[in-house]
């Protein structure tokens, strides 16, 4: 079983191994696009030979909703072009906030990669350990990648609507409490305030410390306080299907098996006026 997290020291030690490949999966939080250029930030400093796994670009652009899963074939083509080979041990990282690396971890696994880990502490932790970063674009030989999509990992709006109404699984929303409780506007314009009826709130960043998950005992307490039962199925949701994966990561680390993603998340639910909303 591939480790969910690897340390900067471990990665440094194994960096040159042929069987290992590092991917930069940083991503801007919603609302930051106007003031920051993620591509420029990537070019200004990334781990050596780590291509940019751009979650924004790797999403389904035919969808009206942000960050929806792409089709398997287009994902495979994109991975081959980046130089990613599916049979390698893939290590993904983000800025160090554990905001987007989990989504990359989840996407790669959903498309058939078996060995995927997250760099604990991300780019920030790597630099803090005194290790070198590279600048400029990364160009690698074409990778070998055949994507097979595991659709069972994803729930659609009709599934979630039914479960919200009739039960059968717990809907866990990873947004901040003030968004969940309809106290502030969503960072994406045009969305209603509130949450899916009968959902529970576990803000994603409450599960994280220093770019990795909190210790298991603390995670168990946080889920218990939110009313989440670890022996029952969970559907994770958030603003756009990215930070929900931090909840999936945490539950997976605790051995919870039946955990799926509502990929549309609030970007879909909150954009419609024909669905029930709790405030």
Structure report:
This protein has ten helices and eleven strands. The strands form three sheets. A five-stranded parallel beta sheet has the order 5-11-10-6-7. The protein has helices at residues 8-14, 38-44, 72-82, 101-110, 122-128, 157-166, 177-180, 216-225, 244-253, 265-269, and strands at residues 5-6, 20-24, 89-93, 116-119, 154-155, 170-173, 199-201, 208-209, 212-213, 234-237, 259-262. It has 279 residues and is α/β, with parallel strands linked by helices. 29% of the residues lie in helices and 13% in strands. The termini are far apart. It comes from Pantoea endophytica. This is Sulfurtransferase. It holds the Pfam family Rhodanese. Keywords: Repeat, Transferase.
What is the number of helices? 10
- The Rg value, from CA coordinates, equals 18 Å
Classify the oligomer: single chain
Helix-strand pattern, N to C?
Answer: EHEHHEHEHEHEHEEEHEHEH
Q: How many runs of DSSP E, i.e. beta strands? A: 11
Strand order of the largest sheet: 5-11-10-6-7
Specify the biggest β-sheet: 5 strands, parallel
Mean of residue pLDDT? 97
Helical proportion? 25-40%
Distance, first to last CA: 41 Å
In terms of DSSP E residues, the strand content is 5-15%
Which spans have pLDDT < 50 for at least 5 consecutive residues?
Answer: none
Structural class call reads alpha/beta
Shape verdict: globular
Keywords: Repeat, Transferase
Pfam families: Rhodanese
Organism: Pantoea endophytica
Protein name: Sulfurtransferase
